[in-house]
Amino acid sequence: MSDRLTGKIALITGAAGGIGEATAELFAREGARVVITDITSARLEKLAERLEGEGAEVLVAELDVSSPTAWEAVVERTRERFGGLDVLVNVAGIVDWPGIEDTGQEAWDRVIAVNQTGTWLGMKAALPLLRASGNASIINTSSVLGLIGSGAAAAYQASKGAVRLLTKTAAVEYATRGVRVNSVHPGVIVTSMIKTILDEQGDRQPDIVRTPMRRAGRPAEIAGAMVFLASDESSFVTGAELVVDGGLTAH
Ligand SMILES: NC(=O)c1ccc[n+]([C@@H]2O[C@H](COP(=O)([O-])OP(=O)(O)OC[C@H]3O[C@@H](n4cnc5c(N)ncnc54)[C@H](O)[C@@H]3O)[C@@H](O)[C@H]2O)c1
Fold first, then answer.
1. CA quadruple 195, 196, 200, 201: dihedral sign
2. What is the Å distance from ligand 1's center to 194 Cα?
3. What is the b/e burial string over 227-251, where b = at least 16 CB atoms within 10 angstroms of the residue's CB?
4. Which one of the listed residues 27, 71, 82, 156 is annotated catalytic?
5. What pLDDT, in 10s, does the model give residues 172-229?
6. Where in the chain are the domains?
7. Which residue's C-alpha comes closest to atom 26 of ligand 1?
8. In this model, does residue 251 exceed pLDDT 70?
């Protein structure tokens, strides 16, 4: 265990998924006490066991990020167990691939509810504890698809673009109130979200071909960016968009 996050209490959403799990693992290894959450807790229990086996303090909580009452309950449980909160990492997300005309209303609403509204609800619910921390960090997960258009995934792109600017306005609002707010923008990362595509297309997948490093990223490579933004190493970084994409958006 290293100690870049020692003394910090961090809540991570989507912690049963690829990027969320890698983030929880690295946060725990760096000394954070972690609240690991996802829409169902089944896969979180194993993760908690592993982290506790390595000496970490872990709270497992079910949390549907689109539910304001669920957010309130999880923040309250965090306060009861750990006495506060220093870091919120909004990772939970879903994707819908169709473009403008083929996107259904229901799919649109769900993607916006989880990715966009869920990020706002999380910040809103956690901010009283984060402000009380006096040295807090919020990290919101956007995407390269929050920066550039792909010609598909209409709802997803809209939601990730919104996360980018929600992050910036929150950064400005809380800049002198002890809360930094930044977004992370992953490129193509090997997780269950894009497993089918990668299984079918492998390294011939067009976004990988367009990635100057010619490969997909690993969840741990996103977790490293999360740790930097959560730690005091980034004490003058707020409102930033940290792109972790093997160069995909560099050209
Ligand atoms: N994998 C990529 O290539 C990639 C690229 C850019 C951005 N991202 C973003 O990274 C984040 C993590 O994605 P991932 O790649 O690890 O995918 P993933 O599917 O492995 O993980 C997403 C997690 O979010 C959880 N989740 C879904 N709806 C939820 C809800 N309503 N409440 C709480 N949890 C919910 C899922 O159960 C899952 O565990 C997402 O926001 C995604 O949009 C991923």
1. negative
2. 10
3. bbbbbeebeeebbbbbbbbbebeee
4. 156
5. 999 999 999 999 999 999 999 999 999 999 989 999 999 999 999 999 999 999 999 9
6. 9-187+217-242
7. 92
8. yes
pLDDT band at 157 (very low <50, low <70, confident <90, very high): very high
Cα four-point dihedral sign 71, 189, 164, 102: negative
pLDDT over 70 (residue 168): yes
Q: Which residues line ligand 1 (CB under 6 A)?
A: 13-14, 16-20, 38-39, 63-66, 91-94, 114, 141, 143, 186, 188-189, 191-194
**Ligand 1 mean position to 93 CA, how many Å?**
4
Topology of domain 9-187+217-242 in CATH is: Rossmann fold (3.40.50)
Active site residue 174: no
Residue with tokens 């002890």: 178
Instruction: Compute the distance from residue 17 Cα to the ligand 1 centre, in Å.
Output: 6
Q: Which residue, among 161, 138, 45, has the nearest Cα to 86 in the 3D structure? A: 138
* Single-letter amino acid, residue 191: T
